[in-house]
Structures are given as C-alpha cells and as structure tokens.
Amino acid sequence: MKREIWVKDGLNVLELILEKEYGIREFTDRSLEFLLKYTKADLGVFYLVNDSEKKLDILSYHSFLPLKKSIFFQYEDDFIQALLKTKQGVLIEQDQRYEKLEYSLNHHGQTVSTYLYPLLREETVVGIIKLSSTKGFTEEDFEFMNLSASLIVADLMVVIRQEKNRKNY
Predict the structure, then answer these.
(1) What's the pTM value of the predicted model, to 2 decimals?
(2) Please, are residues 157 and 126 in contact by the beta-carbon 8 Å criterion?
(3) Which of 28, 48, 61, 62 is most buried as measured by Cβ atoms within 10 A of its Cβ?
(4) pLDDT per residue over 55-93, tens digit each?
(5) Angle at CA 7, nearest 5°, toward 90 and 56?
(6) How many domains does one find in the chain?
(7) Dmax over Cα atoms in the chain, in whole Å?
(8) Residues whose CB falls within 8 Å of the CB of residue 137, separated by 6 or more in sequence, listed in order
(9) Helix boundaries (H) for 40-127
(10) Which residues contact 138 (CB under 8 A, 6 or more apart)?
(11) Could you tell me if residue 168 is inside a domain?
C-alpha cells in the first residue's frame, strides 16, 4: 500500500509539472529534474531518438556528482540498440568491462546502477531517459519510472508539435 501511494503521488506531481506550457528544452529539463529528485538518482539524460539519422539528440542532462569524461550514450551502443529492439527498459550495473559506465559516473569507487527506459509512441521509441544512481534503484523506483514514461511521452509529443507549429509561422 505504501509503495502504491508513493508511485501515485510521484505520478500526480509529475503530471502537474508537465501540464504547464513549456518549450522543448524547459519541458525536458523540468521532467528530468523531477525524475532525479523523486528517485534520488545522481545523473539523468533525456534523449530524443532520431532514427532517420541514426543518432540520439540530447535534449537535457543533469548531474549531482562530478563527471569524468562522457556521460552520453550513442545510437550504436549495445544498450541503446537492445532498448530500441525490445522497447523495454535496460538496467545496467557498473561493470569494469564496460568502460562507458566506469567513466560516466564513478564517484569514489561506488557501484553505479543505470536505467535506460523508452518513451514509446504507438510502439515506436521516440525518446529515452537515462537515470544513474550510486544508491541503486528500488522496485518502487522502477515502477514509477516505467509508469512516468507514458505521461512524459504524451506531453512531449504535444510540445514537439507546438514547436513545429511555431517554426512554421
């Protein structure tokens, strides 16, 4: 019961944040800031998937820890390709064999959990959210993140449409 209330409360607050009119950058910034605070994650990146050019466009990122090298994934990375293929979230525990995670967010030798999850529109991955945490994620975090995706993608598509309309005028 406590878990369900926590998840519902988070979704309600997120919905209130997203219902305001924002441009694309402010929308992704506010979404990501809330996701980081609510899940107590240390780092977040909001990607828009650009399938035609086979790349990920970085719309927003935030970090609460000092960063080493790059924190970004590329379209061709194995984890991104797995997510695009399965259309499901991918949990990555830091592994010394996978250098990108080691230098993404390794703070004082702590283990880092990274969760990539898709923003789906009609079975197409239009965006990806990456959250990383030195504390790990709970079952409640995963449930909240996965349910938040549908709220975020619905409003994201509206914001994108509004931006396109503004550019056409």
Answers:
(1) 0.85
(2) yes
(3) 28
(4) 999 999 998 776 655 668 888 899 999 999 999 999 988
(5) 35
(6) 1
(7) 52
(8) 39, 41, 91, 113, 115, 131, 145
(9) 78-86, 99-104
(10) none
(11) no
